Write the structure tokens for this entry.
Amino acid sequence: MKPDLLLTNIGQLATLQGHSESPKIGADMKELSIIEGGAIAIEGGIITAVGPTAEVLAHITEMPDLPPLEFPNMLATPGFIDCHTHLAFGGSREHDFEMKLAGKTYLEILAEGGGILNTLRSTRAASEEQLTRNAFSFAESMLSMGTTTIEAKSGYGLNTASELKMLRSIEDLRRKIPAGLVSTFLGAHAVPPEFEGRPDDYVDLVINEMIPAVSETGLAEFCDVFCERGVFGLDQTRNILLAAKCAGMKLKIHADEIVQLGGAELAAELGAISADHLLMASDDGLEAMQKAGTIATLLPATAFSLNTTYADARKMIDMGLPVALATDFNPNCANDSMFFTIALACYKMKMLPREALSAATINAAHALDRGAMLGSLEVGKRADILILDCPNPEYLTWRFGVNLVHTVISNGKVIHTKLGP
């Protein structure tokens, strides 16, 4: 075997192996399958060997053209997987921040024309090229902080032409960045102004025009709905997601973020891959998700930005519900750092550092239906690898607010390193 790239003498190699078919739950979330003094061989973008350095070297018949890269006293992990972002949009929303500081709620800001409707105006006015440029800048920052796979939603156009424009900009971005992208259609993110007082008419537009158009172009793998009081109710959400499922899309739900509406129960009923937010989810809803195998994707930076209560990650883990973490990068929560997300998960949701790392890698991969190829460092999986300038997983949350990335490898190629290009 002659690898393209060989990493050796890694201080701690957290493989997170053994959960490619199903996510980690319960006590398994603390088990990272760490190898001391580990090594990884990569060929054609795929991991071909992983284990203690001596064992991996014994399988090498010819050394790679590039000398082996050594990382003593460092931590290697799978690349972070950001499984919930709103990456593409026009404008910014820093002016809403003053209303937030004055004590207005998310829904009150929305009612005054801020929030999503503010971004809607900027997104509709932006060209596809402008949306791609904006998203490229955000994605580049994410890559530099170790995120090698990004889910990206539409949802700020809220008409067929603008939603398709957003999804095309995401597809264009896919060709411009060395990372994995997963596209999600979120046409049901809010009711646009032209449908004020007629939400059912807008739902009809989403079902009868937008979903067929998105399906025909193949621009989105998932469909998501903001299921929330004052936005889209349970019946409206169910109808939209059933239409998307019939059109071949996989399902996600923004569920029980602001009020306890029953979104968690609906996610379980429809077989959604994930229900996201869940700050106000009921115990019955969480139990239904656990039985259905629906992943709880938690977004602590959103609670931070809204200055509200946090999802009860500790309860979810203890009851055997698979938990994933994501940034929820969006105009209201401009957080592109999984390091910050992991720190918040530990400080505010009582997750342990090793649980948070599992949630940000292998479980996040399953939240995107990518567990078979991403999220752990095992033979046959895509070589998305982080080398972190820290000695162990606990250091990640001890030294919060810092980018600990030393080297980022995406699809077997070094795309970012402190050593230079």
About this structure: Residues 199-217 form the longest helix (19 residues). The chain has a mean pLDDT of 95. The first strand starts at residue 5 and ends at 14.
